[in-house]
Amino acid sequence: MSDENKKLTTSWGAPVGDNQNSITAGSRGPTLIQDVHLLEKLAHFNRERVPERVVHAKGAGAHGYFEVTQDLSNYSKASFLSEIGKRTPLFIRFSTVAGELGSADTVRDPRGFAVKFYTEEGNYDLVGNNTPVFFIRDAIKFPDFIHTQKRHPQTHLKNPNAVWDFWSLSPESLHQVTILMSDRGIPATLRHMHGFGSHTFKWVNAEGEAVWVKYHFKTEQGVKNLDVELAAKLAGENPDYHTEDLFNAIANGDFPAWKLSVQIMPLEDANTYRFDPFDVSKVWSQKDYPLIEVGRMVLNRNPENYFAEVEQATFSPGAFVPGIEASPDKMLQGRLFAYSDAHRYRVGANHNSLPINRPQAEVNNYQRDGQMRSDSNGGSSVYYEPNSFSGPTESAQNKPAAYAVSGEADSVAYDHHDHYTQAGDLYRLLSEDERTRLVEAIVGAIKPVEKDEIKLRQIGHFYKADPEYGTRIAEGLGLTVPQVV
After folding, report:
1. What CATH number did the domain enclosing 234 receive?
2. Which helix (H) or strand (E) segment is 68 a member of?
3. Which residues are annotated as a binding site?
4. Angle at Cα 345 formed by Cα 339 and Cα 348, nearest 5°?
5. Keywords of this protein's UniProt record, alphabetized (predicted)?
6. 56 catalytic, yes or no?
7. In this structure, are residues 282 and 171 in contact, taking their beta carbons and an 8 Å threshold?
8. Which of 180, 300, 395, 467 has the largest CB neighbor count within 10 A?
């Protein structure tokens, strides 16, 4: 069989009908668990590296607290948000995405921004990045995307051909690519960058009324970025520069802090907003949905043991508490499964019983046994449900709030396919100096790509976002913008 006729198959040899879109209820979702191809891809992907994290392997962490500064209980019944002045202990892990455990801190890469709130109703994990958007918007593409960021299977070298081939064939990546290649792609320190929940989430109040929300952590230290040449110098001389800076700042009493704000969208607006609000490659305009301050995060204590606290910390976007729930964001829906599954593989089925992950709230369930079970394993108590022996039972008031879904179960993309407006808006917001550095970074990154076909396809995307954007990159590569664009 020729290469042109090879069919993509599952691991059990069945042909795959759609590898770009997960099966959802209608174009908006949510994702259906019957999509066995999606589950197989994510489950296999989580088991591709041993023992470090498949992504976000290199990281630094710290303890701190979150203090409420504005009462938003009319939007969410989450207890840790319930009153002004209330403090909740937390642990945060910052990380790079693509590099291995020993890689340099100062490379051009998004930064993970994962926060674990130890609330009295259980742990709440907000697992985001230092960017408000992402490269893809459907979890079914995630293993393929990360493969392009990793090493070539033959040379074991980073592969710009794979990186730009994938991005050029996935135009939804353009917004995030523009951010990554801008000055913000290399933060000066972990303290001098913003953080975002990135996804859309749902808040529910005590009356069962719901809204859509997005999270924004704004650094009080100010945003600072590294010059490309200095970043490269530090990568060679001190590859742990960001890790060292965070530890030393806290050790010296210079406690970093961030203000947490949210954007709030009424449920019904999701059906009429000019961009799909669940598409993680898009932002909501702050003119449409202004930032509302919620509280303040302060980091004031370093870990005592890196492995026990930073390396064994596990975060999942699915670790919710009453008052905070999932949205039909397709990327989020896949992460609800993938993150916890990765931890069960990497750390063990009982990862949440480790001290760094253990909730401060009492845990009552019927999960028993498994590797590294370090507590009493439920003792002699009842181990099944329903039962007649006064075992823990569900509380109906904590059921997630319902929302309507519609459409046929099918592998379909989001209805909105405008991948260029927001990337172009971002380009036009940059100063001339910032645009010049952005173009230089992109040109330098694309030059090693062997196929002009890939370069031209990517130039076309830049041009559609803004003609000047595409033209300058084409000129830097010694090419011309394709006539078809």
Report:
1. 2.40.180.10
2. strand 59-68
3. 339
4. 105
5. Heme, Hydrogen peroxide, Iron, Metal-binding, Oxidoreductase, Peroxidase
6. yes
7. no
8. 180
Report how many domains make up the chain: 1
Instruction: Report yes or no: 188 and 112 within 8 Å, Cβ to Cβ.
Output: no
CA distance 190 to 25: 39
State the burial class of residue 185 (Cβ atoms within 10 Å of its Cβ: 0-12, 13-18, 19+).
buried
Name 95's bridge partners: 59, 112
CA nearest neighbour of 305 among 265, 355, 261, 344: 355
Q: Per residue in 355-410, pLDDT tens?
A: 999 998 888 888 889 887 888 989 999 988 888 998 888 888 888 888 888 889 99
Query: Residue for token digits 């994962």?
Result: 114
Contacts for 393-401: CB closer than 8 Å, 24+ residues apart:
398/322, 400/204, 400/325, 400/326, 401/202, 401/204, 401/208, 401/210, 401/325
Residue 430 lies in a domain: no
Q: Tell me which residue of 224, 157, 152 sits closest to 194, measured CA to CA.
A: 224
- Position of tokens 């370090």? 374
Tokens of 106: 């100062």
| Residue 58 falls inside a structural domain | yes
Asked if 123 contacts 116 with a C-beta cutoff of 8 angstroms, the reply is: yes
Segment 153-157 long-range contacts (CB within 8 Å, at least 24 positions apart) = none
CA 178 from chain center: how many Å?
A: 17
* Given the residues 56, 63, 216, 419, the one annotated as active site: 56
CA atoms within 13 A on the CB side of 343: 21
**Token pair of 132 as six digits:** 């408000």
In a domain, 346, yes or no: yes
**Binding-site entries for heme:** 339
**Alpha helix positions (H), 223-371:** 228-237, 241-251, 306, 330-346
Domain region containing 38: 18-137+185-360+409-416
Does some domain include residue 427?
no
Is 0.90 topped by the overall pTM?
Answer: yes
Task: Report the candidate in 37, 98, 31, 102 with the shortest Cα–Cα distance to residue 414.
Answer: 31
- Identified catalytic residue from 21, 46, 123, 129: 129
Q: Is 49 exposed, middle or buried (0-12, 13-18, 19+ CB in 10 A)?
A: middle
CA 421 to chain centre: 22
Low-confidence ranges of the chain (pLDDT < 70): 1-4, 49-50
From CA 116, how far away is CA 164, in angstroms rounded? Answer: 34
